[in-house]
Write a structure and sequence with these properties.
The complex is a heterodimer of chains A (407) and B (152).
Chain A: H1 4-8, E1 16-17, E2 20-21, E3 23-24, H2 35-48, H3 58-78, E4 86-89, H4 92-107, E5 113-117, H5 126-135, E6 138-142, H6 152-158, E7 163-169, H7 181-190, E8 194-198, H8 210-213, E9 217-221, E10 232-236, H9 238-241, E11 254-257, E12 262-264, H10 278-294, H11 296-316, E13 320-323, E14 334-339, H12 344-353, E15 356-357, E16 359-361, H13 366-372, E17 377-381, H14 388-406
Parallel strand pairs in A: 3-15, 5-6, 5-7, 7-8, 8-9
Antiparallel strand pairs in A: 1-2, 4-10, 9-10, 11-12, 13-14, 14-17, 16-17
Helix pairs in contact in A: 2-10, 3-10, 4-5, 11-14
Chain B: H1 3-9, H2 12-19, E1 31-37, E2 42-51, E3 54-63, H3 66-79, H4 84-98, H5 105-110, H6 127-143
Antiparallel strand pairs in B: 1-2, 2-3
């Protein structure tokens, strides 16, 4: 199998960085964009731009149709029971904050518990932490097994009759593990709590079925699934959405406004106040069409092979510590590591000089860094458009950087 | 890869300071300021005893990358024993240097080993690593020798 064809779809992969070919291994931060997405967005502004949901003229109706068609696409992608369960935000962070400001504000009281995992990204942690402070609730953490997988035994202890919300990531942005969402849903629902899932690191890499997972809320970002920045998705079970008061008010979300009262629009418009990121949503639609054409079977075959190559290369190199599972069977396309006695930022600067772009730092997961007793790690993350030569260049550059700092 | 550019950033004197930092540790009864670099988790704690408008003692602790540790170590050499006004001028000069502007020969000489950090200007993403300790020192000097409380 070859990935050459896919690489040609991504114009940025032809650029050079520091006089070296771009080796982009920071897909967990954001994915690059295929020409199909760039074209769809340029075409919208060149030929189709109008505001949605309000104009009676043809162009506005067409823009609305294109925007709403993406809602259908996302509903199908996630296997939502109905299209109204999907609405657009500006990011995963925005989606998660939305759940906090609606469900959290309405249903969490003093003495209640909110349970998260220690591996959470700050976006699925700080909003809950601040809600807990506001409400006098308790924020509890589910720990890890020694290999970095979520500790389900601990989850069984932490999720209690007092728990109102369990919020976990489906796939870790540091450890590369995928969490047992179905089991967590059962544990949460047995205590009448809701399960909020951060899907930011999952949707580009695996098929997601929110009904099979039994997730109550599910959030992800367009920019990590080959779409543009500035668009997030939130899925919520309809029966829950019906109970929620909007967190934002204004245009688009009303059906009738009187002097002193307002009747809100139906779901999902009720939750999309103001002009949405129409072009961005259309870009997301093009990205999902592209991704589904490639197919998750191909995506997973390529990413698994590259992850194995990454893990093999790193674990065989002396003085390297890999965090999370060491075997590819338990590993998503994200590998975090450290070089003995060399700070992650120094490693990343060295790699950058070789055109190899990786992330170094705390990856917006400082509690996890504390849990692992490290201040920072280096993270390489692959997408299906990467190839063996990318991983090879990364490993060769890493060896040189390591030797430089050891000498 | 461009080992030459790597060598330009990580000159021997920088690597030496990072490996065996000067004035690393704590000073009793000092005023302290701790600063973080939120993008990477670097932490630097600078301590000073200032009496009669002069830095009598200086030390630092913390953890972070080679650049941040080396820069802190170099800074303690450059500021130790200096009158507050001189120290403030050197911090300002370091800021000028690290953002790519030139200094007079005398100003550069006064910065000692810090002059080699000038190459950091070519690595914009690393400038914050180099300036963290100097910002902490600047805050301590602004607090001056009138302050009787400690800052954390």
């Amino acid at each position: 199998m070859t990935t050459i064809d896919y690489r040609q779809d991504f114009p940025i992969l032809k650029t050079r960085v520091n006089d070296e070919p771009l080796t982009y291994l920071d897909n967990a931060a954001t994915s690059q964009k295929p020409q199909a997405v760039i074209d769809a967005m340029a075409d919208f502004y060149a030929n189709g731009n109008a505001n949605v949901h309000r104009g009676v003229y043809t162009l506005a109706a067409q823009a609305t149709d294109r925007y709403e068609a993406v809602r259908d696409q996302v509903a199908q992608l996630l296997n939502a029971a109905r299209r109204e369960e999907v609405f657009f935000t500006r990011s995963t962070t925005d989606s998660l904050n939305w759940v906090v400001q609606t469900y959290g504000e309405q249903f969490v009281s003093a003495g209640d518990e909110i349970v998260v995992a220690v591996m959470e990204h700050h976006s699925n942690l700080v909003p809950w932490q601040q809600l807990a402070i506001r409400k006098g609730a308790t924020l509890k953490y589910v720990g890890l097994q020694p290999d970095g997988q979520l500790d389900l035994e601990d989850a069984r202890k932490q999720i209690t009759a007092k728990t109102k919300i369990v919020a976990v990531t489906q796939a870790s942005n540091v450890l590369g593990v995928t969490n047992p969402i179905k089991t967590l849903a059962r544990l949460a629902h047995a205590q009448h709590a809701v399960l909020v899932v951060d899907g930011a690191q999952a949707v580009a890499h695996m098929p997601v079925d929110v009904q099979a997972l039994d997730a109550d809320f599910y959030a992800f970002s367009a920019h990590k699934v080959y779409g543009p920045t500035g668009v997030g998705v939130l899925y919520g079970k309809y029966a829950l959405l019906e109970q929620l008061t909007p967190a934002q008010f204004g245009g688009e979300m009303i059906s009738d406004v009187d002097w002193q009262t307002t009747e809100f629009a139906a779901i999902p418009e009720r939750f999309e106040a103001g002009t949405p990121n129409v072009c961005g949503v259309i870009g997301l639609g093009a990205a999902l069409t592209y991704l589904q054409r490639v197919g998750f079977a191909t995506v997973q075959t390529i990413e698994k092979r590259l992850t194995a190559q990454l893990l093999d290369g790193l674990t065989q190199m002396p003085g390297i510590t890999v965090y999370g599972p060491q075997t590819v069977a338990d590993h998503g396309p994200v590998v975090a590591f450290n070089v003995e006695n060399v700070h992650g930022h120094d490693v990343a600067t060295g790699l950058d000089l070789a055109g190899v772009e990786v992330r170094a730092g705390h990856h917006c997961a400082q509690p996890l860094m504390r849990y692992l007793h490290v201040s920072a790690t280096v993270r390489a993350s692959v997408g299906f458009y990467n190839n063996e030569a990318d991983v090879e260049r990364f490993l060769t550059a890493l060896k040189s950087v390591k030797e430089f700092f050891e000498s | 890869m461009s080992l030459l550019r790597l060598k330009a950033l990580y000159q021997t004197v920088i690597l030496e300071h990072a490996q065996a930092p000067h004035h690393f540790g704590t000073v009793p009864d000092a005023q302290t300021v701790t600063l973080h670099n939120p993008t990477c988790g670097d932490e630097i704690n600078v301590q000073m005893v200032i009496q009669d408008h002069q830095i009598k003692q200086i030390a630092f602790t913390g953890s972070g990358c080679t650049i941040s540790q080396a820069s802190a170590s170099i800074m303690t050499d450059v500021l130790a024993g200096q009158p507050v006004a001189v120290a403030q001028q050197r911090i300002a000069n370091f800021s000028t240097l690290i953002t790519g502007d030139t200094l007079t020969a005398d100003e550069q000489h006064a910065l000692g080993d810090a002059a080699v950090l000038a190459t950091v200007a070519e690595f914009p993403t690393r400038i914050k690593c180099a300036t963290l300790a100097w910002h902490a020192a600047d805050q301590l000097l602004t607090m001056g020798d009138d302050a009787d409380g400690r800052t954390k």
